[in-house]
């Protein structure tokens, strides 16, 4: 009779231990997922802030360079794509397009010395630069939380509860670096 009680006690301890492990793993997955969502939301906030700065920057440049319509259309299109992006990949692609359009817009400013000296333009340029830095930090935080979540999903015992928690692998937020594009080949043949 004493042996039965010992076996029951061991079974109860094992069940409680496994249950505790299950609860801890499940809660860890949920917390990691929430952290990744929060980090992605931070990126969205910074992208929205940046998108809100763009029309003011465009209007400032327009005042000095009325004949540069092509770049203004490109910036407006890039902004629309950025605001309409829903997935991490489409946001990254839209951000890359926006970076290119803004780069061209700022290059135009080099042709207008009065614009480069305009305090509104300088202030907007500073705000845009600060926002770019915030976006980079937010992207880094998101990628770190996505890495943590993805690793947690593959580790034991969390791997046993991934489907039950409804957690999915996160993609990293990677923006194409325009400096890493291949340079055109010049041939005099």
The parts where pLDDT drops under 50 for at least 5 residues are 181-189
The percent of residues in helical segments reads: over 70%
State which percent range the strand residues make up.
Answer: under 5%
Kindly report the name of the CATH homologous superfamily.
LemA-like domain
Main beta sheet: none
Compute the CA-based radius of gyration: 26 Å
Would you list the SSEs in sequence order as H and E?
A: HHHHHH
Terminus-to-terminus distance: 98 Å
CATH architecture grouping: Up-down Bundle
Mean pLDDT: 83
The strand count comes to 0
Number of helices: 6
Number of domains: 1
Shape: rod-shaped
- As for the CATH topology, it is de novo design (two linked rop proteins)
Structural class, by secondary structure, is mainly alpha
Top CATH class? Mainly Alpha
Structure report:
- The chain is mainly α and 189 residues long.
- It has a single domain (24-173), classed as LemA-like domain (de novo design (two linked rop proteins)).
- The protein has helices at residues 2-64, 69-84, 88-109, 113-117, 119-154, 162-165.
- α1 packs antiparallel against α2 and α2 packs antiparallel against α3 (88-109).
- The longest helix has 63 residues, at 2-64.
- The protein is rod-shaped.
- The relative contact order is 0.15.
- The model is unreliable at 181-189 (pLDDT under 50).
């Amino acid at each position: 009779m004493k042996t039965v009680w010992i076996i029951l006690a061991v079974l109860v301890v094992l069940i409680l231990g496994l249950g505790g492990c299950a609860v801890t793993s499940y809660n860890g997955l949920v917390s990691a997922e929430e952290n990744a969502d929060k980090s992605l939301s931070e990126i969205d906030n910074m992208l929205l802030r940046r998108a809100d700065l763009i029309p003011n920057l465009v209007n400032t440049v327009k005042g000095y360079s009325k004949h540069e319509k092509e770049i203004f259309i490109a910036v407006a299109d890039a902004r629309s794509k950025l605001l309409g992006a829903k997935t991490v990949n489409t946001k990254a692609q839209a951000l890359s397009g926006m970076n290119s359009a803004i780069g061209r817009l700022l290059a135009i400013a080099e042709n207008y010395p009065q614009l480069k000296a305009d305090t509104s333009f300088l202030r907007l340029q500073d705000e845009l630069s600060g926002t770019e830095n915030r976006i980079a930090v937010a992207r880094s935080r998101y990628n770190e939380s996505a890495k943590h979540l993805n690793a947690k999903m593959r580790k034991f015992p969390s791997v046993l509860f991934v489907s039950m928690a409804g957690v999915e692998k996160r993609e990293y937020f990677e923006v194409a670096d325009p400096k890493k594009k291949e340079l055109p080949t010049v041939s005099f043949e």
